[in-house]
Design brief:
InterPro entries: CheY-like_superfamily, NreC/VraR/RcsB-like_REC, Sig_transdc_resp-reg_C-effctor, Sig_transdc_resp-reg_receiver, Tscrpt_reg_LuxR_C, WalR-like. Helix content is about 50%, strand content about 15%. It contains 10 helices and 5 strands.
Amino acid sequence: MIRVLLVDDQPLIRSGFRALLDLEDDIDVVAEAAEGGEGLELAKEHLPDIALIDIRMPVVDGIEATRRIAADPALARVHVVILTNHGLDEYVFDALHAGAAGFLVKDIVPEDFLHAVRVAARGDALLAPSITRKLINRYVTQPLPTGTGTGLEELTGREREAVALVAQGLSNDEIAGRMVISPLTAKTHINRAMTKLRARDRAQLVVFAYESGLVTPRNS
C-alpha cells in the first residue's frame, strides 16, 4: 500500500487529488495539510511513502518543507513530489536541490498522475524522462555552482557514465541501450551510485551531476 500525504493550501485541490487517490486499491491518503510546517509534523506522525507538496504556500512553502523533510533521517523513506501550476516553475530546480524526488503540474491527466505517484513511490525515477529533459533544457543554460567533485571519485567509470546519462534525462532502458548493457545492469549501476553518493533518488543524481561538473551545462 502506497501511503500519501497531501500538502496544499487550496482545499479544492486537496479534495480533488484525494478523491482520485481514494479510488485506487493500492493507495491510501493518510493525512492532509494546508501548509508546509503542518505537513512536516504529519509526515513525522504518519511516515508516508509520498508527500505531494504544493511549491507555493503561506507560512512554510514547499521548498522549505522539502528541505526539512530531506534533512530529517527519520523521514528518509518519504519521497517528496512537488505540485506546481506551471510545468517549469522558476522554483522547481530549487525544490529538487532541496531534496524533492520530482514534480507534477496540477493539470496533469488522472492516469498520468496515478502512474507518477506509483513510480515516485518506487524511488527509481524522476517521474518521467521527458520531465527531466524539460528541466535540463531550462536550467542547464543557466550558470550552476560547480562543486569540488567530492564523491565523484568514489564512482567507477561505468557508474559515472550511468549518472551522466541519468542527468541527460534517459530512462533505464535508454541508458542500457547507450551503454550496451541490460536494463538490470543499468539499474544496478545507478543504485550503487546513489548509495555511494548518499542520494535519496534519481533527482539528486541529476543535481549532483551538474554541480560536480560530471555533466557540463550547455551554452545555448
